[in-house]
């Protein structure tokens, strides 16, 4: 059996995103409905020990990088214990965390000591009222305190994820760009994706990322392509001349990066998702404890991975070739 994590399109996979919970302390408009969410009972969520067994099985296949996601991963107790166990697995070189940042001020030092190497923080607005609207109740000042704690703890790079939405936060592009001039943050503007969202709402708010470079021109600043921060993934990176940080553009719709995709996803309830957008899932829970069976399941999922996600066809109202996921972003792990 060929045990390389190379799909039929020649893409090498060395990156596993692991969701540890489908629960969150916020209700961001692009990630989770305001009400009516049905969360998985604890009995259906993978234990830390089960997650570790899965990673031990796939690390020999070439998985080197992990990202811990949710929901909000910091709502799950004892996360630092999981990080410590994962960092001790042979072959794992990098463990990053995606978080909304609300609890970071309390956990930054502990996460750093456990083995988290990088953090990505969602920050869709710097304005308190607007941030509260997008997150349905969040306090942006807690996030900013969390960023300060991360810098004191020595995290580098620190990336800020901004889902850009027409008529919502596109008026803050200039302020966010100026933030990279003053602070060593790496801001990544991300196109709004049609996952778990009602089509009309998404189409109305979708905004191509050309607007970011247009804002640079309007500001009269020179933004040149540059090498991104470590783990920059699909972002096209730029630096404003003299800036302390960088900004990146992640455009899964207007210019998809499927051709270089290197990631698989493990949901909190134990499903491998080969692609974020499509409905295909492969449950691994019954195979935990059997390394060969776990590896075979990952190879089966990889073999089913399509060449592209076709989100641009969704925007155009065209017929899709496959079934779209019915899960929200918070249930998948982003």
UniProtKB/TrEMBL annotation:
Q: Name one GO biological process term.
A: Mo-molybdopterin cofactor biosynthetic process
The major lineage groups are:
Bacteria, Bacillati, Bacillota, Bacilli, Bacillales
**Binding of [4Fe-4S] cluster 2, residues:** 258, 261, 275
Q: Which InterPro entries match?
A: Aldolase_TIM, Elp3/MiaA/NifB-like_rSAM, MoaA, MoaA-like, MoaA_NifB_PqqE_Fe-S-bd_CS, MoaA_twitch, MoCo_biosynth_MoaA/MoaC, rSAM
Q: To which pathway does this protein belong?
A: Cofactor biosynthesis; molybdopterin biosynthesis
Q: What is the name attached to this protein's record?
A: GTP 3',8-cyclase
Complex and partners: Monomer and homodimer.
User: Where do the annotations place [4Fe-4S] cluster 1 binding?
Assistant: 24, 28, 31
Q: How is the cofactor bound?
A: Binds 2 [4Fe-4S] clusters. Binds 1 [4Fe-4S] cluster coordinated with 3 cysteines and an exchangeable S-adenosyl-L-methionine and 1 [4Fe-4S] cluster coordinated with 3 cysteines and the GTP-derived substrate.
Any Pfam family from its record, for instance, is: Mob_synth_C
Listed GO MF terms: 4 iron, 4 sulfur cluster binding; cyclic pyranopterin monophosphate synthase activity; GTP 3',8'-cyclase activity; GTP binding; metal ion binding; S-adenosyl-L-methionine binding
Q: What does this protein do?
A: Catalyzes the cyclization of GTP to (8S)-3',8-cyclo-7,8-dihydroguanosine 5'-triphosphate.
* Enzyme Commission identifier(s): 4.1.99.22
Q: Which reaction does it catalyse?
A: GTP + AH2 + S-adenosyl-L-methionine = (8S)-3',8-cyclo-7,8-dihydroguanosine 5'-triphosphate + 5'-deoxyadenosine + L-methionine + A + H(+)
């Amino acid at each position: 059996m060929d045990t390389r994590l190379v799909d039929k399109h020649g893409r090498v996979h060395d990156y596993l995103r692991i969701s540890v919970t489908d629960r969150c302390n916020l209700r961001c408009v692009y990630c989770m409905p305001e009400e009516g969410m049905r969360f998985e009972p604890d009995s259906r969520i993978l234990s830390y020990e089960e997650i570790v067994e899965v990673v031990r099985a796939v690390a020999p296949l070439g998985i080197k990088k992990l990202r811990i996601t949710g929901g909000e991963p910091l709502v799950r107790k004892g996360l630092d214990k999981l990080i410590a166990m994962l960092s001790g697995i042979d072959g794992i070189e990098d463990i990053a965390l995606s978080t909304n940042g609300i609890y970071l001020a309390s956990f930054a030092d502990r996460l750093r000591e456990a083995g988290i190497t990088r953090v990505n923080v969602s920050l869709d607005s710097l304005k308190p009222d607007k941030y509260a609207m997008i997150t349905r109740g969040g306090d942006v000042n807690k996030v900013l305190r969390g960023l300060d704690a991360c810098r004191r703890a020595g995290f580098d790079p620190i990336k800020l994820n901004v889902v850009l939405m027409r008529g919502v936060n596109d008026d803050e592009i200039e302020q966010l760009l100026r933030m990279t001039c003053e602070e060593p943050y790496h801001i990544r503007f991300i196109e709004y994706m049609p996952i778990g969202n009602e089509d009309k709402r998404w189409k109305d708010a979708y905004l191509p990322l050309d607007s970011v470079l247009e804002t640079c021109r309007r500001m009269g600043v020179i933004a040149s392509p540059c090498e991104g921060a470590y783990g920059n993934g699909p972002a096209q990176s730029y630096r404003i001349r003299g800036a302390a940080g960088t900004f990146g553009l992640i455009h899964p719709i207007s210019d998809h990066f499927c051709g270089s995709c290197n990631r698989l996803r493990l949901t909190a309830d134990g499903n491998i998702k080969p692609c974020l957008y499509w409905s295909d899932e492969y449950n691994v829970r019954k195979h935990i404890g059997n390394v060969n069976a776990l590896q075979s399941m990952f190879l089966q999922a990889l073999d089913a991975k399509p060449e592209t996600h076709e989100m641009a066809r969704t925007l155009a109202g065209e017929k899709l070739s496959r079934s779209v996921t019915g899960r929200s972003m918070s249930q998948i792990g982003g």
